[in-house]
Amino acid sequence: MMETALSIRSEIKLMFSVGSLSSALHFSKIVAERKKRRFLINSIISFLNENDLDGVDVYWTWPSKNDRRSYIHFIRELKKIVGCAQEWKKET
């Protein structure tokens, strides 16, 4: 997929999206627990690498007041690990 996209337009970035309006309850439970959050992040990294994608879009509309802290932890951890994975990808 990436090769086809780049052959059409070299500056294109391919990403995938996680979450939806209807999955907010499930997403909330996953990111609230550190072990589940790490599993999700590792799954995202694996998917990015296996499919040669540039990034991920997190779609979580209206996290509850209780979810905000979990959301912040998730985004910070995801950003750190995605950044490390992208640096490693550049080196190889």
TrEMBL record:
Pfam families the UniProt entry points to: Glyco_hydro_18
Q: Which residues form the GH18 domain?
A: 1-92
Matching InterPro entries? GH, Glyco_hydro18_cat
Q: Which GO terms describe its biological process?
A: carbohydrate metabolic process
What's the superkingdom here?
Eukaryota
**PANTHER family, per this entry?**
CHITINASE, GH18 DOMAIN-CONTAINING PROTEIN
What is the name of the protein in this document? Answer: GH18 domain-containing protein
Species the sequence originates in: Caenorhabditis briggsae
